[in-house]
Structures are given as structure tokens and as C-alpha cells.
């Protein structure tokens, strides 16, 4: 409203300025011709009227001559004081509030006055109408924007609802469900991440379940033996008690070794399993070969050693080599060759143990790397965890373990250790063979 008042005052000042310019730029014989000319030339706005007075003579533009304002007593009473001096006043009429502004003129002794009449209510009605229109348009626009926002939000959140519904159907007993992947946005990336997490969880749960099943199967036999002998034990026979005691202690020792192996495999996935340090591969190979010579009466030798330094845990590497050497002893006879060796290849150090024993049947080459995996024709004892432990140690270093499929005359087991261990990666399939450009046989 303040801006409306200011505009009205500017319009009044403009009329008075035009009136003053006309009065000073031409020669007039009194106030009557001046007012007559000005009112004839000037066309007022819709919310404005012009009124002139010289003595008792009134000057009213022809288009507004029928306006009854000039006949209303409230107008006559308000305009009378303005004819003698410049000023303004406001009156209330049946058409609303009216602003009266006057400017007097004196020419050749004849006095007159120009009165500018502004109908304020018309401007206010126009402003109110504009505000109402603006409010209606704004309200409708707001509702339209809200409706579009809800629609777009519904479309954007629809994949999240699908993710929620699918996630509710995934249980600890069934991790096979996967979230549908559609689009190429942040929600799609989140869905792929969740599916990857479910893949890892399913793999971990299946591995744990398989481990529990296999461990339960392996422990069932010694427990059955313990129970059977205890149930048949004649406690009054000292000799039978002594024999049963020795037998049960042997079975308990087997179970302890099984539990120790399982604990070791469980630790391979935990932080702190390895204590890395710079290791001389040649010295480590020679030291492991010296220790392995005490495992059995075999023709022990060293094929060759890698002249390189590798970042590794020397105790774990030695443990893996001795495990392979122990397996070689179990599958050979006195006089057979068992050799250890190491070599540098493509940024990794390869460690191996080979023997001239019976070798590994082709159908067993992958299965023997699995937990509790054994060859079909084996006659040795054990739980089938040795090669799984070797593989776990190699992969903890960022490498892998495999059987050299091209080696003839026995078996040759190889595992690799990168000189600079890379970030953890998904493991390769057990016994899948050596990587590219890795030597498959070292000659004695």
C-alpha cells in the first residue's frame, strides 16, 4: 500500500508539473483560458479526474461531466478550502476514499485552481485483485509442484521399496535371493553393493555350514570309537583298562590335531594372522629343507633357491613348506626323492615341494585342495586339511597354491607369494593350475 500511495503522489505531481509548464510556456489572458486549454488537452487515467475552478465557474472534462461526485456536498465542502491555497485532503464517498490535491494559479489578476482527484479505492481494488490472483496462482502452483514432487518421489523411491520387500524375504536360512538391478543411478549402485554383500555372506555361510558338516563327520568316528570302547570296558581287568586308555588317548590326540587345524584355518581370514617382514627366500628355503629332513628317510634335496627378498611371514611360509613335505613323505617310500625349491617369477616368489611318489590321480587334483578333501586311493591317515592350510597361507599373502599338472613321475605342489602383497582379492578356484608364465617344473 505504501508503494500505491507513492505512485498516486507521483501522478499528482506529474499533472501539476504539466499544468505549470503549460502556464509558463504560453501567454494567457487570465486563468480561464489556461484551465480550459489544459483540461481539453489532458486525458486523465481511469482512476483520476481533473477539476478546475475560477471564481464560481467550474471546469469539468466532457467525458467526466456526468460524474455525480462534483454534485456531492462532501466534495464541495472539501474542495472549497483548496481553491485558495495549494494542498490536499481525503474524503470518503460512496465509491470509497478519494484524494483531492490542488494547485492555484493567478494570471492577470484572475485566480483559479486545478484540482486533481484520485480514486484510491480503485487502485486498492486492483492491488487486491492482483494479490488474490497471485495467491490463487501460487496456491495452485504449490499444489501442482507438491503433486509432481510426490509423483517423482514415488518413482524415485519405488526401487527402495522393492529393495525393502526383497530384503524382508531374505533370511539366514535362505540367502539365495538377490535384489533386482534396474537403471543406472545411486540406488542401482547401492543395489549392486548389497547384492555383492549377499554373495559374500552366502559364500561365508555356505562355507561355515560345509565346515561344520565336514568337521562333524570327521569327529563322529573318533567319538564313536571312544563311546564304544568305554561302553565295553571291563574296569576290573587292568590289562584291558591300559589298552583302552592308550587307544582312547590316541583318538583324543587325533581330535586335538583336527581342532588345531580347524582353528588355524579360521584364523587365516582374521587380521593379524600374518606378521610380515622382509624375508630372504633362499635362506628360508634352505632352512625349511633342513627341518623337513627329519620327517622321514627320503632322498632330500633342494632344487634351487630364489635370490630375492619377499615381504612374508617366515613362520607361515615354513609351515606351508613343511606341510607339503609331510604330505610328500606320506605318499612316498624310503629312497624316493623329496625336493624343496623356490624361484622368482613375474614379481612373485614360487615355493614348491616335489616328490617321486605315486602322484595324484587326475580326478582328485581339484578335490584335494578342498577342506577334508582326500584322494580316492589314499591309504594314509589324516583329515584332508593339509593342502587347505597351505592354500589359506598362500592366499593370506596374496598368492595361491596349485598342483603342477605337467609334472611327471610323482607330484609337485607349488604356492606363490608376491614380493609386495596386493590388496585382498577374490580367491581362485582350488587346484586350478599355475598362472600364466609360471614355470611348471624345476629340474634337479
Describe this entry's structure for a reader.
The strands form three sheets. Strands 2-1-5-4-3 form a five-stranded antiparallel β-sheet, sandwiched between helices. The chain has 444 residues and is of the alpha+beta class. The protein folds into three domains: 2-125, Beta-Lactamase; 200-267, Signal transduction histidine kinase, dimerisation/phosphotransfer (DHp) domain (Helix Hairpins, Orthogonal Bundle), CATH 1.10.287; 277-418, 2-Layer Sandwich (Heat Shock Protein 90), CATH 3.30.565.10. Helix 5 (186-232) packs antiparallel against helix 6 (238-267), helix 7 (281-292) runs parallel beside helix 8 and helix 8 (314-330) packs antiparallel against helix 9. It is built from nine helices and twelve strands. Mean pLDDT is 81; it is low at 424-444.
